[in-house]
Amino acid sequence: MTNIEPTVQPTNPDGDPDGDPDGGPSGGGVERGYRSRWPAVLVIALLLGAAIIGVPVGIAAHEASGYYVFSPGTAPLITTSASCKPAGGELALPSGEPCVRLVVPKGKAHAVDGQLRMVDVEVGQAGPLDWAEYELGLLGNSRQLVPVAAYAGTTPTSELGCQDTQEMVSANQDAALAALAVLSYKVDQKPLGVQVDTVLAGTPAWKAGLECNDVITAVDGKAVLTAAALTAALAPLQPGDVVSLTDHPAAGGPAKQVKVRLARPSEEALADGFDGHAYMGLEVETRVKPVLPFPVSVNAGAIGGPSAGLAFTLAILDALSNGKLTGGHKVAATGTIDPEGDVGQVGGVQEKTVAVEKAGAQVFFVPKAEYPDAESVSHGDMKIIPVNTLGQVLQTLQRSYGGDFSGFSDLTRA
Question: What is the model's pLDDT at position 19?
Answer without folding.
Answer: 36
